Amino acid sequence: MNLLVQLSDVTKRYDGGGAPAVDNVSLEVGHGESVAVMGPSGSGKSTLLNLIAGLDRPTSGSVHVGGDRVDKLSETRLARYRRGKVGMIFQFFNLLDDMTVADNVLLPAQLAGVPAARARARAAELLAALRIERHRDAYPARLSGGERQRVAIARALVNRPALLLADEPTGALDTATGEEIGELLLDLNSSGQTLVLVTHNPDLAARYASRVIRLVDGQVSTATGAR
Amino acid sequence: MSGHPVLRAARSGVTGRRVQAAVIGLVVGVSTAASALALGLIIDANAPFDHAFAAQQGAHATTTVDGSKATAAQLSATARLPQVAAAAGPFPETIVTAQVTIPGVLGSLHLPPVTLAGRASPGGPVDDIALDRGRWAQRPGEIVVSRDMPGPTLQVGQRITITGTRGTPSLTVVGIGKSITDSADGWVVPGEVAALRAPGASPAEQMLYRFRSAGSPGAVSSDVAAVRAALPPGSLLGSQSYLTVKLQATSSIAPWVPFIVAFALIGLVMSVLIVVNVVSGAVVAGYRRIGVLRSIGFTPGQVVAVYVWQVAVCAVAGCLGGVLLGNLLSVPLLGQTARVFGVGSLAIPVWVDVAVAAGMLALTGIAALLPALRAGRLSAVQAIATGRAPRPDHGYAAHRLLGRARLPRPLTVGLAAPFARPARTLVTLVAILLGATAATFAAGLSTSLDRAELDLSHSGSEPVQVDLGAGLVKAKLGAPRPPGTEEPAAVQQRAVEAALRAQPGTLRYVAEADAQVAVPGIPGGAWVRAFRGDASWTGYAVITGRWYHGPGEADVNTYFLTATGTSVGGTAAITSGGKRVMVRIVGEIFDPENGTASVLTDFRTLAGVLPGLTPRQYDVALRPGVNAGRYASALGPVLGQDLGVSLNGTDPLFVSLLALVSALTVLLMLVAGLGVLNTVVLTTRERAHDLGVFKAVGMTPRQTIAMVVSSVAGIGLVAGLIAIPAGISVHDYVLPAMGHAALTGIPPSLLDVYQPWELALLALSGIVIAAGGALIPAGWAARTRTATALRAE
């Protein structure tokens, strides 16, 4: 398997001691895979995703993504890593309310210094593919939850990342809209996009992931194939 | 209302938001310090003499008594007169002639007559002398000189040679001091005075008195009369009232009051604005927490109490620290002011400390109360929703427009940020504007003071003067002139002119004569300077009109015009010895002369009224690049011992003033920078989650800093641009006010001081303040962990 993500003996402890949020986890994700990380609340799913995204650093162990030792990168290199190699989708979308849809989507490309024309063309392509181009000049607050998540997906993909990380992408959506977003992620994965999906919805994991990893109290309890 | 939950909630509010608590404490502290200092400056600028006089137990009357007519016992007995509250003396006193060597200048400079008093110590019940530098004289051969002693500025370690007495003794300067009533020009040990007295001179004694009633000239005169009556007839040679000294001190202070007040007002307004901004901002930032408190059962009154307590704890700490800081800062700053005013030491009055602390606490309380009352009235859900973000739609258009600009995205995001909080932006803009206005005003004022110093000292135009004084007396009092020979003074002048012509480095020179003349309408008359030859180059700045062209024409100072009610183009009568000459006033010159009238004219104008007028000095201009000190040291030996060569140096008063202006400007810019810091901290906290999003999608630490700094840089640029005309207006208003207080007009050269390149730099002062204030919180924002920021609500 051509590995894209490799976590080795990763532990994450937050200040104040207590049980680790992620406890000695090792994990591998190949190019083009779709992996679901499941577990109850507080099991360490989001922390694991944050460690892969470089939003947080492990207390011990190593995180490799696409040849980068993520846990050892400086803050500046981490930012470049996030804008170039990973795209993130959040449960509550994390769109910037004072920017239009188009501006939200363009932001990672602009931060990366992508030429304006090329960035605009890529954003237009994504907005069209995600069927939200009519909202390009609207503000996120005026969109439905599903539309907002599509905007978030477009933003995550604008720099063509090797890895798409999704943290409860349907958690704030109604069932029908959640289905739509799930299908969208499935389509992306089918087209070769590597996907790591955090969810506590077994149906979502079963339908849209090729592999499911279960976390309990920060430790991998089982890893099974799905779909 | 149960007190405990309120206090606990307030305490957890302070400890849970340490940065915010620290910012409130810091802003209130610095604002309190600035306000105390500003108010202290205003108060001290208005009454520095009274302060210093009280602090130094100044003498209401300084008297000189003939020691051969009154005994020490008789003098001591005057201390027990019913009118006398305290007395010091008798101190032996003498007036000496002296000369001094200046480092780097060969030869000696003659000092004007110096009054020396013999005192064993600087202290005592009356006239506690403030020692600026060095120590008190402890043995013969040592002298403490007054900071205001006429002549060149002396330093500790220099030597003064006393002439006109046996052995021409030499004294080493061991200290520099100041008597608030100028009781003497220098002090030596008592036993040395007799040795310094000129042969044959009568012994004199100095007595210093504080009277029980000395509020008016009449009261002081009556008290002095009682002293005179208690002494043998004719023994009281003279007395000087403190009111005379106060009048002189006040007239020298008055010109500086307007600029001190301008700085102080800017500081006060800025402090009030920043405190209101930081405190109300802190309460608004706590809306979400207010919602939570409401949801768990806090009543509106309790919520208000929690927030007022929370702010009050920080504010009290800030006020106490601020009062302490203000008083500490006042030591050098008011010390500087005191030196400027020449009135010993000054301090912030206690009532100012109390009033400023109370006022700042009240202001803080009101600033916290109003938003807390509003928050208290909101429902829990409303408070939580309101506290999450700025009002929707504010600043959206700015983001959209700036997003299209061809600038790096972090900059455009930052530049659009101020539009989300218009009221906070406005307050920040005003704070930066005031700081930048102070900088613009200070830059102009410094240039104006520099030029005024050059104009008044003439150090640029005629740095060297040859004083004919002593030689002239010898020439006049020498052996009778044989018939048919030339006037000795004329011989001397020819010799001086020949020496000046022969001296390498001489550019030009002119002979100057001074005389007191009577002018109708001016009590005490006017001081006339008559030049023999072209003197237009001597450095007098013309306010209106032109320099005189020949006999019959004159330039006068503003006081002359005001006192006589004339104007440029009019005529004035100059009278002396019963003779009168009419002069045409062709120009108004910048020559404050401590509130006396002055006239500049051609030597020939006075031929009819002052036929025996003789030049007193030569004013000498040097070729470019010639060192004045070396020139003087070379010229001195050529002219001989009877002629003094002096230099027009920089007045230490102006040096002190420039230092004071710089210190005040830095302080105001710091306060403005703190206002910016507060705004950025509040905004960054409010937008912590957005910051997490930016970082999550790839914003680097450097881009984060650029975004945060540019969020106030735009405000800084706008404020800087507005500050240019504002600062120039303050300058153009304050400078004439200073001139008016000094009884003089201001020449255009002192008003037109701003160069285009300087304005361009000053326009950036707003950005400097903004960037300076934003850098620290920008650094915090850049270091914030992305995951932590994303979890922020």
Task: Please give a structural write-up.
The complex is a heterodimer of chains A (227) and B (793). In chain A, helix 3 packs across helix 4 (116-129) and helix 5 (145-157) packs parallel to helix 6. The two termini of chain A are 18 Å apart. Chain A has helices spanning 45-53, 75-84, 101-111, 116-129, 145-157, 175-190, 202-208, and strands spanning 3-12, 22-30, 34-38, 60-65, 68-69, 86-89, 163-167, 194-199, 211-216, 219-225. Chain A has 227 residues and is an alpha/beta fold. In chain A, helix 6 (175-190) links the parallel strand 7 and strand 8 (194-199). The mean pLDDT of chain A is 89. By secondary structure, chain B is an alpha+beta fold. Chain B has 26 helices and 20 strands. In chain B, strands 11, 12, 13, 14, 15, 16, 17, 18, 19 and 20 form a 10-stranded mixed beta sheet that branches. In chain B, helix 8 (257-285) runs antiparallel to helix 22 and helix 15 (422-457) crosses helix 22. Chain B is elongated and about 100 Å long. The model of chain B is unreliable at 470-481 (pLDDT under 50). Classes of the chains: A alpha/beta (227), B alpha+beta (793). At the A-B interface, helix 2 and helix 3 of A face helix 13, helix 14, helix 21, helix 22 and helix 26 of B.
